[in-house]
Structure formats: structure tokens, C-alpha cells
Amino acid sequence: MIRARIAGVGGYLPERLVTNDELARTVDTSDEWIVARTGIRQRHLAGPHESCAFMATRAAEGALRRAGVEAGEVDAIILATATPDEAFPSTAVYVQAALGLATGFAFDVSAACSGFIYALAAADAMIRVGTIRTALVIGSEVYSRILNWQDRTTCVLFGDGAGAVLLQAAEGGPGIISTHLHANGGLAGLLYVDGAVGQPERSGQLVMKGQEVFRHAVSKLAAVVDEALSANGLTQADVDWLVPHQANRRIIDAMGRKLGLPPERVVVTVDRHANTSAASIPLALAEAVEDGRIRPGHLVLMEALGGGLTWGSALVRF
Ligand code: COA
């Protein structure tokens, strides 16, 4: 049986770091409020040269390097983003060009904060059926472009960055065990960007009903965790690491408790990165693989919920 193995991970964070105190100088908020309600202490914000494609390329190069794979071996680049550099072409083709490739194919996935899980599921399916053998799956976001910096209820929550994994087809052994995807467009009004290209009458900014999103996140993520385990005949005790989407420390802690995992078995970056949307899971993975927490043989559960609403999980043996 062919499995998609995660052979390398990489991440990129913008150079500019902005603390809560710094934000509190321009918007009516405080470090105490942000830390207590979200766990966020700081975020990285992209400078003019740190485009979605630039950050994605740096993350992809890291994943290739750690996998020991040449860019020329990549068959597909699947990039999840809600903040592409242009409406078209996709940001993925700019990454392809930056990596010096003119072979294979590349496309973007739009599923907001669940984008990385969606992109991983697409790549996994194509590897399993033999369409491709090697894929870069990337999450890259520049939310600083779509935030209303006067709206304290949203602008304090997000950051910019990119993360990537290099997937390779392998016979049996470790790899992606399952993915589960969900969406409910009836809940689109809870979290969206107001407008698109060519709609100057609209703000182009992120709008969120935070409390309602919070409520859906806790219940829907608990359900996908159960779904992932029961579909594979596994129990909570089998999971070595939870690598959740990093939106809010309180949601992350609730999922850790749900899995009966001690806090040291949950990878947390939200305190330092804030919510980097589709980039948050691969950035967290990159950190935990690089510092040796996630090791070969470990079972890792990833879950995310975002605008759409969209949500899902991926269960991976490293
Ligand atoms: N600083 C200070 N006060 C703030 C604030 C800020 N940055 N943002 C909101 N407040 C105020 C509100 O105005 C409100 O004041 P009021 O009681 O006088 O009206 C009060 O704090 C409480 O606001 P509330 O919205 O009830 O807070 P909350 O505990 O629900 O936390 C979120 C708000 C956004 C942190 C929380 O709802 C959340 O994390 N939601 C999920 C968000 C998410 O995960 N989104 C992404 C999914 S991918």
C-alpha cells in the first residue's frame, strides 16, 4: 500500500515582531486582556518584501533541505492561503518559479484556517492513487493585509508566516494514515473577508463573530478528533502529539484535555506566532520536529477549523 510520508518540514516567520504592548499603543487593548483571552503574547508581521510567495518559498526550501530532496523531484505544489499575492495566477505557481521548476503542477487551496489540512488531504489522495510521488504542501498567510487595524476584536488575534511539508510516496510504513474534511457554508457569515478583487466599495477586511466561532470550534474539533480515532480503531492513549491549529490557547487546551494529553504533549505556538491561519499547523510541526519533540514512530493528530466554516483532521505516523 502506498502512503504519503512526511519527509521534511520547514517554516518561515517575518522579521518584524510585534508585541501586545506595541499594539496597545495604537488600539484600545492591553497585554493582560490578549494573554488572558487568547494566550497570544506577540506576532510576526510581514514587511513589504515578505509576500505570500516569498514566505512560502522560504518554508518550502526548508522542507526540501531537511528531506534531502532536490526541488527538481517535486511533482506538485499545493499551497493553502486566504491571502494570495494575486487573484490569479495562484501563489503556488510563483513558488514553483522561485524554486526554479518548470515541471509538474501547482495550485492554491482556499479553506481559510483549515487550508493546510485540506491541502494535505488533496496531496495525500494524489500520492495514494499514484498521480504524483513527491509534493510540497504549504500554508502561507499575510493576514496583516486583510485586518482592520482599528478593530481590537480581530486585529490582535492574527500573525503572518508560512510552513511547509515535503511528502513522498513510500511503500507501507509511516505516513498519513487518514484525513477527514468538513464544511458548512451556511455558517460562512461567522468569519469571512468582506469583498474580493474589483469590489472597491467593500472593505476587503476580515470580519468575525468571535464568540460563535469559538463555540463551533470547541464542539466541531472535539467531533473530528473522535472521528479520526474511531475511523482507525485507535484511542486517545495512542496519540503522542496533538498539533492543533493555533487560534486561541483556550481552544487548544480544551482539545488537549479532550484527548487526555498532558500539556507537554500539545504543540503550542499561538503565544509567539498568534493565529497564522493555514500556516499555523506546518509552522508548529516544523518547530516540534526540528527541536526533536516529534520523532520517528510518533503518532501525530492535527486538527483545524476556519472560515467557511471548514474543519478537519489529519492523523500522521512520523
Ligand atoms: N482588548 C480589550 N478588550 C477587548 C478586545 C481587545 N483586543 N477585544 C474585545 N474586547 C472586549 C469586548 O469589547 C467585550 O467588551 P464588553 O464586555 O464591554 O462588550 C469584552 O472584551 C469581551 O469580549 P468577548 O468577545 O466576549 O470576548 P471573548 O472572551 O469571547 O474573546 C475572542 C474574544 C475573539 C478572543 C474569542 O471569542 C475567540 O477566540 N474566538 C474564536 C476566534 C477564532 O478562533 N478565530 C479564528 C478561527 S480560525
Secondary-structure blueprint:
Elements: E1 2-12, E2 16-19, H1 20-23, H2 31-38, E3 42-45, H3 52-67, E4 76-80, H4 91-98, E5 105-109, H5 115-128, E6 134-141, H6 152-155, E7 161-171, E8 175-183, E9 191-193, E10 206-208, H7 210-231, E11 241-244, H8 249-258, H9 270-273, H10 280-290, E12 299-306, E13 310-317
Parallel strand pairs: 4-5, 4-6, 11-12
Antiparallel strand pairs: 1-7, 2-3, 6-7, 8-13, 9-10, 12-13
Helix pairs in contact: 3-4, 7-8
Just name the CATH architecture of the largest domain: 3-Layer(aba) Sandwich
Sequence of strands across the biggest β-sheet: 1-7-6-4-5
**Count the helices. How many?**
10
Query: Whole-number average pLDDT?
Result: 97
Low-confidence stretches: none
The proportion of strand residues reads 25-35%
Give the CATH superfamily of the largest domain. Answer: Thiolase/Chalcone synthase
Ligand types:
coenzyme A
Please report the first level of CATH classification, the CATH class of the largest domain.
Alpha Beta
What would the CATH topology of the largest domain be? Answer: Peroxisomal Thiolase, Chain A, domain 1
Helix content: 25-40%
Number of domains: 2
Following the backbone from N to C, one meets helices and strands in this order, namely EEHHEHEHEHEHEEEEHEHHHEE
